[in-house]
Design brief:
This protein has four helices and four strands; from the N terminus they run αβααβββα. It has 147 residues and is mainly α.
């Protein structure tokens, strides 16, 4: 379940990066979104590795970690989508000035700089969760003698 949530966030980021209708503003936004994408991919890889051992690990701990991950990931994904939608909506509104109606915008500019603090916080949280997963795996290895 957590793997699916992280996969959903990864797809959202990929759509932003690869959209022909959304241009990421060239301030520091490209670095923000690329760093976020790399961290999400790394987290997804860790979850995939953890999933291999899921059936033999403390299920209470697994369920707790998965619930926390899903909550954090879905809230963050909602924040990104809401922010991007607001910027696109604002730009669409600007194309309708008074009685003048300009052709609809085909390309929207999105500046993710305002989300930098949220991105940094999310990345820090993901690193902590990844550490918790790794810790749980190491505990499992110690208990079972597997490596």
């Amino acid at each position: 379940m957590a793997y699916g949530a992280v996969g959903s966030l990864k797809l959202t980021i990929e759509r932003l990066l690869n959209s022909s209708h959304i241009s990421i503003v060239q301030n520091s936004s490209p670095q923000i979104i690329k760093l976020l994408y790399e961290e999400v991919c790394s987290f997804q890889d860790a979850l995939e590795e953890f999933d291999k051992w899921r059936s033999t690990i403390n299920m209470k701990m697994v369920k707790t970690l998965e619930a926390e991950i899903m909550d954090v990931v879905y809230k963050f994904e909602d924040a990104i989508e809401s922010y991007v939608f607001d910027q696109i909506h604002s730009q669409s509104e600007e194309s309708h000035h008074g009685d003048q109606i300009h052709p609809p915008l085909i390309l929207f500019s999105v500046d993710l700089q305002e989300l930098k603090q949220d991105v940094d916080s999310f990345i820090e949280t993901v690193k902590e969760m990844k550490t918790a997963y790794i810790h749980e795996l190491h505990n499992h290895y110690k208990k079972t003698g597997l490596h």
